[in-house]
């Protein structure tokens, strides 16, 4: 059994099952601009990434015509906020939150999401009481959370930390905080891309916890 002092969760695609919502929102924007839409979860998972601005470029948005910061990000955010409060938890997340709580290990959320709206989502999901703290960004730009990870780590020096995420960016965040990273394939990046990171990849968080002796 592996022992950890702290467990840090990513949010989107790791706790909240918002893949379909995110794909629907970006497809609305692509269709309005006559750009090819994403036809499947698999296609979405192959192209999605953080920083989101680079992901938008891969989808064909033209920043010389429309500003990402002033037009595209606010537009997507408006669609997402209108739809995402109806999203549910990812498979096995409630089971996993309870198992970690039973083990007495503090749990945290660290995300590139906008903090203020993420707080509303967590309230809607009814899981806020599981977490010792919730940390997001102060903007809607969905840029890197590595600096946030380093800041969090300074408060937990010498701790054995497990970071649970669903993207290759989570690997970078885990490295920034000196954490061991394990990934779930419930979220926004394909299993193929996750395996390329070299981190252990599991179908759900329950499978992940079983691998470290917590379930």
Task: Produce the secondary structure layout.
Blueprint: E1 6-9, H1 19-32, H2 41-47, H3 52-59, H4 68-83, H5 93-102, E2 107-114, H6 115-125, E3 133-137, H7 146-154, E4 161-165, H8 168-176, E5 180-184, H9 191-196, E6 201-202, H10 205-211
Parallel strand pairs: 1-2, 1-4, 2-3, 4-5, 5-6
Helix pairs in contact: 1-4, 7-8
| CATH superfamily grouping of the largest domain | HAD superfamily/HAD-like
Q: How many beta-strand segments?
A: 6
Give the terminus-to-terminus CA distance: 10 Å
Which series of helices and strands comes N to C?
Answer: EHHHHHEHEHEHEHEH
Most strands sheet = 6 strands, parallel
Q: Write out the strand line-up for the largest beta sheet, numbering strands in chain order.
A: 3-2-1-4-5-6
The backbone outline, from C-alpha atoms, is globular
If you average the pLDDT, what whole number results? 94
* CATH classification, class level of the largest domain: Alpha Beta
Q: What is the CATH architecture term of the largest domain? A: 3-Layer(aba) Sandwich
Radius of gyration: 17 Å
The structure class reads alpha/beta
Estimated share of beta-strand residues: 5-15%
How many structurally independent domains?
2
Question: Oligomeric form of this entry?
Answer: single chain
Estimate percent helicity: 40-55%
The DSSP helix count reads 10
**Poorly predicted runs of 5 or more residues:** none
**CATH T-level topology of the largest domain:** Rossmann fold
